Amino acid sequence: MDLARFIAKRLVRLILTVFLISTIVFFVIRIIPGDPALLIAGIDATPSDIATIRAKLGTDRPLSVQYFDFLWKVVHLNFGNSMISEEPVTSLILQRFPLTLALAVFGMIIGTVIAIPIGILSAVKPWSAWDYVGLVISQLGMAIPSFWLGIFLLLVFAVKIPIFPLFGAETLASLVLPAFSLGFARAAILLRHTRASMSEELSKEYIIAAKAKGLPERMIKYKHALKNALLPIITVAGIEFGYMLGGAIIIEQVFSLPGLGRLFLYAIYQRDFPLIQGGVVFIAIVFSLVNFAADVLYSVVNPRIRLE
Amino acid sequence: MNEPEPLLKIENLAVRFSHRGKIVHALRGIDISFYKDEIHGLVGESGSGKTVTATSIMGLLPRSSAEKISGNIFYKGKNLLLMPEEELRTYRGRTISMVFQEPAKYLNPSFKIGGQIEEMVKLHMGLSKAAARARARELLKLVGLGRDERVLDSYPYELSSGMKQRAMIAIAISCNPDFLIADEPTTALDVTLQKQILELIRTLKNIEDMGVLFISHDLAIIKEIADRVSVIYAGKIVESASKESLFDNPMHPYTRLLMLSIPDARHRGQKLAAIRGQVLDSTSMPKGCLFAPRCPLAEQQCFSLMPELEEHDRGHLAACHFVGKSWNL
Fold it and tell me: Which H or E element spans position A57?
């Protein structure tokens, strides 16, 4: 299979994913209690006021009509206007997205910088100091929720020792603590995968052959084994990055950052259907694109994948 | 008579390691001499110590505390077993080289064939990038992969298993080694490919004047390729002779039984002989002959006294108390 067909196949999968996610989110927000018209109108509203608002929002139409109208708009990447602010959902999302993306990228960099070198060293030298450091990091990273770590870091490095700002997103420094809280948990998982992948490669037969060739240890480990070990890590890192975007939503709350997270959270409080739908579909598209990019990258680095 | 100096000489090599609290005797003291321009076949069942012999020469036995290696392996007057790892590394691949059984597993899946040859000649021969490339091209031609330029830029998975084994042989001989170890190099291949690879190894031996240790469990393959043959059983050499002498006049009952188990067109329709019983448990350390429990000739003496490997004919050694005695099957 050539690269073009491989990409085409993945695109079809992406479209299917977006379709499924759109459908699920559409029905779920309509099943859970809460009518946007009631929330907008307030407690003093008369039934006719509510009916007027419903008509304006379009929620008085039959569910099937609303559903197909919504799908039709998704196809055109149009999610309608927010019920509350009446601004287009797309522009609301795009205003907030750069901050969330920056947070996720920064978190990913921190996570990778921690996880990959320590993961490799703990596989190369099992039971060494590095291995214990790795073990502690991965246990802590998985046990500590990132919002708790965020609050803790704020208390220590913004309140007690004021190195970093307490809130806001004016400077890069204000992203350090949220990105670290986000990256640390992902580092734990990435580290374990790196260690497992590296030690698996080190036990393979081609390592014996490389020794028989008289290659220096360093070359065997950091050239022959590492290249093979990093291949599956690319895929894991792609998935981790997707999670990072989701995790950013919670961390933004802790650090009062005006990213996508707060936008979507308020949308849910206010039952702003178009914004919730647009937000979830947007995240799904980004998540799929990231995984897709990881797969394309993987297939470029490892040409075998396209044949399998 | 003046014996030629062996290229590589194994003296009383014994290897044991502990496994689940038991001591496993992988090699129980073997002596073999390898000569220049000679293919020495080592034949035995799986678990008899063939591969341990190869990995001991290469210094690839894990040097963990659990291992106990004793004896000597002399190569050009130097004992490889006493050599520090860094010095040994300059021999590996450079003067002593090895071809493995399953090329698909022993080639690195993520590096192109050309690169896997080039890194070796760059390291050991100090060749430049361009010279290494030229050398890789020349080597692929030598092993019969020269017709197709693409092999150089192929990943192992893009080659057939026969091509992979040829590529691995090209890697092994890339630095003109003096001694080549081939550990069951044809076992993973089908019969027509087996023939081709055997021919290739013989041709290369003639071109490069190498000493070759050819390991196989298959006496028929050994008969085809070897100049001299040693038969190994449970970590001990039981018989060693020139190929002609061994096949004309097998002395050890184990060798004789092995020969009866080769299918032969002349004995079409007859049942093949299987050797009764099981290979000796590698954790036991009997006083007598290791083969005695399975031997049709065994007598009281065989269970109490280990026979020494002795010369019974010119250059023909066997370790048996009853060399020459016949039996009815």
Answer: helix A47-57
Task: Report how far residue A256's alpha carbon sits from residue A147's, in angstroms, rounded to the nearest whole number.
Answer: 12
- Comparing CA positions, the residue from B309, B311, B317, B316 lying closest to residue B290 is B309
CA pair distance A53, A74, nearest whole angstrom: 23
Q: Dump the DSSP string for A179-245.
A: HHHHHHHHHHHHHHHHHHHHHHHHTSHHHHHHHHTT--HHHIIIIIIHHHHHHHHHHHHHHHHHHHH
Considering only CB atoms, which chain B residues are within 8 Å of A212? 58, 60, 92-93, 97-98, 100
Q: B265: Cβ–Cβ under 8 A, 6 or more apart, which residues?
A: none
| CB A126, CB A199: distance < 8 Å | yes
Q: Is B18 exposed, middle or buried (0-12, 13-18, 19+ CB in 10 A)?
A: middle
Q: How far is B124 from chain A (nearest CA, A)?
A: 8
pLDDT tens by residue, B228-253: 999 999 999 999 999 999 999 999 99
Q: B329: which 2 tokens?
A: 């099957």
Mutation site for B-interface testing, chosen from A202, A205, A213 by largest number of B Cβ within 10 Å: A213
Task: Check if the beta carbon of residue A96 is closer than 8 Å to that of residue A259.
Answer: yes
Task: Give the distance from residue A211's alpha carbon to the nearest chain B alpha carbon, in angstroms.
Answer: 8
Question: Looking at the complex, does the CB of residue B123 fall below 8 Å from at least one CB of chain A?
Answer: yes
pLDDT digits (tens, 9 = 90+) for B41-70: 999 988 899 999 999 999 988 766 457 889
Distance CA B45, CA B51 (A): 11
Helices (H), chain B: 50-58, 85-91, 103-106, 113-125, 129-142, 161-172, 191-208, 219-225, 243-248, 253-260, 300-304
